[in-house]
Write a structure and sequence with these properties.
716 residues, alpha/beta, Rossmann fold, Arc Repressor Mutant, subunit A, 5 domains, seven-stranded parallel β-sheet, six-stranded parallel β-sheet, 33 helices, 17 strands, 49% helix
Length: 716
Amino acid sequence: MENIHHKINVCLKDFFGFNKFKGNQEQAITSIMKGNNTFVIMPTGGGKSLCYQLPAILLDGVAIIISPLIALMKNQVDSIRSYAEDENIAHFFNSTLSKSEKENVKNCVLNGKTKLLFVAPETINQQNNVEFLRKCQISFFAIDEAHCISEWGHDFRPEYRKLKTTIKEINKKPVIALTATATEKVKKDIVKNLGMEDSQLFISSFNRPNLYYEIRDKINVDRELIKFVKKNEHKSGIIYCLARKKAEEISEILNLNNIKSLPYHAGLEQKIRVQTQDSFLMEEVNVIVATIAFGMGIDKPDVRYVIHYNLPKSLENYYQETGRCGRDGGEGQCILFYKKEDLEKLQSFNSKKIALEKTIGKKLLEDMISYVETKDCRRKQILHYFGEYYEKNACKEKCDNCKNPKTYKDYQNELTIILELLKEVNGHFNMIELISILQGHDSNVGHVKLSELSNFNKLNKTHKSIIQLLIERAVLEKLIEKNIENGKLKIGELGELFLNKPFQFLMIKNQKKNKSLSSHDNMLLEILIRVRKDLASKKNVPPFIIFQDPSLEEMAIQYPINNEELQNIIGVGVGKIKKYGEPFTNAIKEYVEKNNIKKTEDYVIKSKPKKNDLKIFIIQSSDRKLPFDDIIQQKNISMETLINEIENIVKSGTKINIDYHINDILDEVQQNEIKDYYLKEAHTDSIEDAQNYFENEYEDDEIRLMKIKIFSDLAN
């Protein structure tokens, strides 16, 4: 026993150059050296590789390392060779090798020169390779990324299921299984499918204390990405997307903004993927925009941020991918951008799967959403998912919930009314219709007896957006069931339980917006407000028709001194620049020169001009006076999406004819009433303020469309 420990420590110092082991490394190495089946669960950056590398050097024969990715094999081989004089100490054996290269590897293994042979599961399962390995002296088998054996794992690979039979056929030698992530269910799957019931289990803490976890609303996400990356210039980062096309688009936007970036996904040729990985490792590019195919094989210790552009499919995926960050123990920021449409997209994909996959996917997604929605410490939630107890106060503000605690309001009474209404109407209506009933707008639903419902008009003082958020949360928490096909809602079993025994239903009261990466220049902002006021008086329009406050605030950050730069400001289109831009750029230019402002280009966001088929269709349809209902039906979009697109068209400076639709929904007196409000009474362009002014006489959509028409007529 003492002899093994001495050998292990000498090898650690003399071969690998380390003075001490991390966590459970020494115990796991001792276990495999003694010939025991060994199961190691150790987070990314915890030193899993050493658990099979060191015993492979000391034991007689060759260790067979089964690894799922070619890139991972190459990195591991390069890593081992960097410690040794003879590069034959480690080889990989896969489909990238030529016939002569494969023969060379086989000879090195048979001659005893090779101590570690890396193979893919697909390769080792081939019968000709089984026959070759039976001739070799094998020390042990190591199965890396062992979670791939489980359908409940985040990267299931059917070939892993055959390994138990293949290993038995080659030679009954000890097995060491290694993974960075494993829930209780995945652990059981690994043990069962590898026949490792007798294995010694070594679990390290899943906590990565240096990582900071944050969820951000997915608003102006490309712009926020550029700002974040520019703020972290010269640092390495990974941005994860679900779709290949999106990875390429984001990489292109980054490059347009002078950020060296490359896309990475399974659709690229193998040669390009290898070049991309090497460029990242050698720091020729700072940012990789990737699908989940990237990262498993990248041993880069100083990745400083991992950004999720889309919602991951599971909390294991998320943990594994954020685990690429700060492996050296240094700074690591993990930002996830979230919007409910991402969840709906994943739910839609999942609904098309076969029964078992659908059940698994649904449960994994629920756990992911629970993490996003949690009011508690995010670190605590992650560790609890992996079965590890954690004291919340140990987080030390390394997640957004602990750093910026949010204020919550109890909506128990409002939820009770919503659930009681759902019982009354028995699954006949969708969310928009239910909100209309709750706010007393029966004309929107087209049913004569709705006003007789006991909950009709019961939430007329609650804003539509709050009711929508309540319903969405209740769907997530299974109090309400939603029919994915037609969007109709009905009360769930948990909703019935809630009505029998109500409990607190908390939602964020005043959620703080993400802090701006740069605060605005107050002196300049005051000047711009005066310029706007003078111009508004001359043009006889309210100041917010010219530029809204967020536009002025951004001007006071970016200091745009010409039309090209002004066009990068939020809410500023070509039409507005022609009509109102000059006094603002002149004022900013004078201020910059007078105060010797050193202007940076960091936050001037350049975007690629792209053809927007929906935008073109809407403009052409409105020219032909095509009814809005027909546009919605032909393009399979909601009324909200249509109005959002129309608003964006107007903001970009393009005039659009929506008079024909407004004339259908509002008479001349109503139109003039709303117009007079915005031109003579309103202090802001807020829909909510307008609703309060008119005491909910009009629908949100009616006010929005009138506001868009006024802006289009006066601002463009």
